[in-house]
Specification:
By secondary structure, this protein is an alpha+beta fold. It has helices spanning 2-9, 11-65, 71-84, 119-125, 145-148, 182-259, 268-298, 311-328, 349-365, 396-401, 423-433; strands at residues 88-97, 100-106, 115-116, 133-136, 157-165, 171-180, 307-309, 332-336, 345-347, 371-379, 382-389, 437-443, 447-455. β12 (437-443) and β13 form a beta hairpin.
């Protein structure tokens, strides 16, 4: 248990350490893998070059054996070969004479007919037919150093030697040449440079990706925590709202009894006070109901039972219930119903009442003088319920945020109007659950028109 608590307490440190280890370890493994592949590739190329030198030594020994009796032809072959292939640094045909070796033909004609002593030549002479010796080269004699000047110290130069046998199977001369792999090495180095650049680029991309991934991981943890907090908030709101309902019901009941004189004579002043208490209870009840609806909608628990509904009776019922509020402000509240019979719509009757009560009630609330008029019309297999008022109206910016949760338009004309900013959000959500939509048209200082669009029964 203590170990678990330690991990929980130092969770952020472990997360940070994990991110740092990933950022270091993955690029390191990529680097080691790339270097290992490049190293194996170089070894493979070197082995291929060595085999090429062996094969070349055997084939040249056979080729030159046919011309040993003709020095001019031998020299001609060497000239042609070295001219066409710049990889040959030097190429010589030597014969043993007086305990040394005489150059009978070669790339460097200044050495022709000269005698040289070398353990390398002696070793090559000791080889059997078709045997070839190949090794990394350095100048055999001081004279050879000039041939090496144009090659870098990093260039690989192969020294190849092989005895030459005549047609009678007798050893007659030795072939010695030095072969450069400069062209291949240059190509390898270019590829190596490109690989290193690609490796560095890959490492940078991986580091950036890992940095972002670690950050995304943190965001994911944060998001999970926010979801948990949000869930706790919803549960708290639901519990608190339910718990508030019981005392509110009791307060309403006792206040009603006192207003009726059950507990004694009620004066006019007392009645006014009780009315204020009842108004506050109504506002608090509305708030509790709004909070419960928000909780149900966000958790997907708000049930909507769409069915065939006749719209006119519902509108008339709502007008009748809200008429006292309108008359109190000396407003005209009227439903201008057309002579035509309206088709039935698909909606949840109780939820539709809630939507229209909220919208018409809002129009009354934000209209100081004039009227609130409701009309209905059929268009494109839909019924449009239009609520027009001569209230304060809204600016285009306020209209954008009208149906956002907790949003309320704030100006001199609306600051004294009581509200939570939840009603219109709930109204929009319920309307959409009934497959409907709400359209807002408004002009500041002139008034607003809210249109509820619902499907006609097919």
């Amino acid at each position: 248990m203590k170990l678990k608590e330690f991990f929980v307490q130092h969770k952020q440190i472990f997360q940070l350490s994990y991110g740092i280890i990933l950022i270091i370890l993955i690029p390191l493994l990529i680097s080691l893998n790339t270097l290992s592949v490049v190293g194996k590739y170089n070894d493979s190329i070197e082995l291929s070059l060595e085999r090429r030198a062996l094969a070349l030594g055997r084939s040249l020994a056979v080729s030159f054996s046919e011309s040993l009796d003709n020095t001019e032809m031998l020299q001609g072959k060497i000239d042609k070969l070295t001219y066409e292939n710049s990889d040959f640094i030097d190429l010589q045909i030597l014969i043993p004479e007086n305990n040394s070796f005489k150059v009978v033909a070669g790339k460097d004609k200044t050495n022709v007919n000269k005698f040289f002593e070398s353990s390398h030549y002696s070793y090559v002479w000791s080889l059997k037919e078709r045997e070839v010796v190949v090794g990394k080269s350095a100048p055999i004699f001081d004279q050879d150093k000039e041939s090496f000047e144009r090659f870098s110290e990093k260039d690989r130069i192969w020294l190849v030697g092989s005895p030459i046998y005549n047609n009678n199977g007798e050893k007659e001369a030795i072939l010695n040449f030095q072969l450069s792999s400069k062209i291949i090495d240059d190509a390898i180095n270019n590829n190596k440079s490109s690989s290193i650049i690609l490796l560095i680029t890959t490492i940078i991309i991986v580091i950036l990706f890992l940095s972002v991934s670690v950050r995304i991981w943190d965001y994911a943890i944060l998001y999970r925590k926010i979801k948990e907090v949000d869930k706790m908030k919803d549960e708290f709101i639901a519990i608190a709202s339910h718990e508030l309902r019981t005392p509110l019901t009791a307060i309403r009941g006792y206040t009603s009894l006192m207003m009726e004189g059950t507990y004694g004579k009620v004066t006019v002043k007392m009645k006014e006070g009780f009315k204020g208490v009842m108004a506050s209870i109504d506002r608090l009840s509305e708030l509790v109901e709004d909070l419960l609806n928000v909780s149900r909608i966000e958790q997907g628990r708000l049930k909507v039972e769409n069915q065939s509904v006749q719209i006119k009776p519902i509108i008339k019922e709502i007008i009748l219930s809200l008429l006292p509020s309108a008359q109190e402000k000396k407003l005209v509240l009227n439903y201008k119903e057309g002579k035509e019979k309206l088709p039935k719509i698909i909606a949840d009757p109780s939820k539709l009442k809630q939507v229209l009560v909220n919208l018409i009630g809002n129009s009354i609330k934000y209209t100081e003088k004039g009227s609130v008029i409701i009309t209905t019309e059929v268009e494109d297999n839909k019924i449009k319920i239009k609520i027009s008022d001569t209230g304060v109206g809204m600016s285009p910016e306020e209209q954008k945020h009208l149906f956002e949760k907790f949003y309320r338009a704030k100006n001199e004309k609306t600051e004294k109007i009581i509200g939570t900013g939840l009603g219109l959000w709930i109204t929009k959500q319920i309307t959409e659950l009934m497959n409907g939509e709400i359209i807002v048209e408004s002009m500041q200082g002139v008034g607003s028109r809210i249109t509820v669009v619902l499907d006609i029964e097919k």
